[in-house]
Amino acid sequence: VQLVESGGGLVQPGGSLKLSCTASGSTFSINAMAWYRQIPAKQRELVATITNGGGGTNYADSVKGRFTISRDNAKNTMYLQMNSLKPEDTAVYYCNTDPRYGGSWDWGQGTQVTVSS
Predict the structure, then answer these.
(1) pLDDT tens digits, 56-97
(2) Coil, strand, or helix at residue 110?
(3) What are phi and psi of 82, to 5 degrees?
(4) Which of 103, 95, 111 is nearest to 22 (CA)?
(5) Gyration radius of the chain over CA positions
(6) Do strands 67-72 and 57-59 pair parallel, antiparallel, or not at all (unpaired)?
(7) Are 34 and 50 contacting, i.e. CB atoms less than 8 angstroms apart?
(8) In whole numbers, what is the pLDDT of the chain averaged over residues?
(9) Cα–Cα nearest to 80, from 29, 3, 5, 2
């Protein structure tokens, strides 16, 4: 499976962005998925997870109430709507499978989000 993240960019504090993650192959819809983020010299952080059907979601405390994860299995695509962005949200954002279920696909190139005035 190949993962391609997109939608990042430069945004002012308080602004919004919507990230997309598109997966190749036919196994996307049966996997719980997740968004992660990473800043240089730090470990990758789990941001949000979503069940295979999209009915269950979880968020890191740092983004709860501001970010919304969703998915469209017909399009093999997952989304992350990010509102009320803060400078500390600046990172490269990646998607992959939910780590609670073990295993992962090859990591994509990620998409850079920079929150700055």
Answers:
(1) 999 999 999 999 999 999 999 999 999 999 999 999 999 999
(2) coil
(3) -115, 115
(4) 95
(5) 13
(6) unpaired
(7) yes
(8) 95
(9) 5
Would you tell me how many other CB atoms lie within 10 Å of the CB of residue 53?
Answer: 11
Q: Which amino acid type is present at position 77? A: T
Tokens read off for 98: 């939910």
Q: Which residues of 78-89 are buried (b: 16+ CB within 10 A; e: fewer)?
A: bbbebeebeeeb
How many residues comprise the chain? 117
Q: How many other C-beta atoms are found inside a 10 Å radius of the C-beta of residue 113?
A: 21
Cβ–Cβ < 8 Å for 67, 47: yes
Cα–Cα distance measured from residue 110 to residue 108, given in angstroms and rounded to the nearest whole number: 6
